Amino acid sequence: MGIGVDVVEVARLGAALERTPALRRRLFTDAECALSLESLATRFAAKEAVAKALGAPPGLRHLDAEVVRGEHGRPELTITGRAAEVARDLGVRRWHVSLSHDGGMAIAYVVAES
């Protein structure tokens, strides 16, 4: 149904979170907030990639997508709110996500499957 990819500079996200502490709660769920900066950057990239996979419809919130650890530590997406509505309307039945960070950069690749 759709694919999305996003790249985040870890230090830039860190600076934004330091500059605007309330931003952390607008972007990340409670469980995500406890993670390292590198993990937050990959999750932010995943949230942006979800929006791209859905065609960037209006009304999406970063909290509508959460990366959780699945079986054996594999990352999985939990989609709620407006993102879940749009995904349902598009016929998305399954999500795939891949995360990585190295050299100060974080990347996420998302596939929305019907």
What is this structure's SSE topology?
Blueprint: E1 2-9, H1 10-19, H2 23-27, H3 30-33, H4 37-53, E2 65-69, E3 75-79, H5 81-90, E4 94-102, E5 105-113
Antiparallel strand pairs: 1-5, 2-3, 4-5
Question: Which features does this protein show?
Answer:
single chain; 5 helices; globular; 32% strand; Ribosomal Protein L22, Chain A; 114 residues; two-stranded antiparallel sheet; 3-stranded antiparallel β-sheet; alpha+beta; 5 strands
Protein model, in words:
The chain has 114 residues and is of the alpha+beta class. The chain has a single domain (2-113), classed as Ribosomal Protein L22, Chain A. 40% of the residues lie in helices and 32% in strands. It has five helices and five strands; from the N terminus they run E-H-H-H-H-E-E-H-E-E. It has helices spanning 10-19, 23-27, 30-33, 37-53, 81-90; strands at 2-9, 65-69, 75-79, 94-102, 105-113. It has a three-stranded antiparallel beta sheet with strand order 1-5-4. A hairpin with a 2-residue loop joins strand 4 and strand 5 (105-113). The longest helix has 17 residues, at 37-53. The chain starts with a strand and ends with a strand.
